[in-house]
Amino acid sequence: MKKLFLFYIILNSILIKSQYLSNGTGGGDWHTASSWSPNGIPASTDNITIQSGDVITKASNSYASCKNLVVEFGGEIDLSNSGYELRVSSSSSITINGTISNGWIEPGNFNTITGSGNFTNMKLIKYGSYFYLGGDFTFERISLRTNADLYINSGAVLTINDRFDYYTGAF
Q1: Residue ranges of the alpha helices (H) in the chain?
Q2: Contacting residues for 138 by C-beta, under 8 A, at least 6 apart
Q3: 2/163: higher pLDDT
Q4: Residue 114 φ then ψ, to 5°
């Protein structure tokens, strides 16, 4: 019985995606374990929530990635114009009610971006497959590459301040 219970615990820890919350004490760098609760650095299979009052920065020269992303009202991700992007896994949800600023976001395949937040000095890049915008958002630049399709849900508004790059796909 003990072996079965231990097997169950190990199996669950492998199969269940982790949920990381920003630390609730002001935030910190994405790649610093103490910026998150539970303590650790999120991976591409982890769900992320940036809490109100926290600012998560990304100062290191590497990508930040997650499975599902929620930025609450008053929460912020500042990518620090590091040249690296925030990648969100395929078949995931992105809910922005706070702010993401200063960099690139790459939604995975089949994602929907919803909410009423802000993308400040942000660019969106998409390779292959499709994604939906389900809120009123402004981007500096959008780049659709290699059969990437962008769909805007009814009633949603997309504003592009700088430029729109379109290679192949549908808009």
Answers
A1: 2-15
A2: 118, 119, 158, 159, 160, 161
A3: 163
A4: -125, 175
Q: Is the pLDDT of residue 153 over 50?
A: yes
Q: Are the beta carbons of 42 and 36 closer than 8 angstroms?
A: yes
Q: Please indicate whether residue 12 or residue 163 has the higher confidence score (pLDDT).
A: 163
Angstrom distance (rounded) from CA 57 to CA 82:
10
Report which of residues 83 and 138 the model is more confident about.
138
| 146 burial via Cβ count (<10 Å: 0-12, 13-18, 19+) | exposed
Categorise residue 40: left if φ over 0, alpha if ψ from -120 to 50, beta otherwise: left
Instruction: Say how far apart CA 45 and CA 47 lie, in whole Å.
Output: 7
- What letter represents residue 131's amino acid? F
Helix, strand or coil for residue 79?
coil
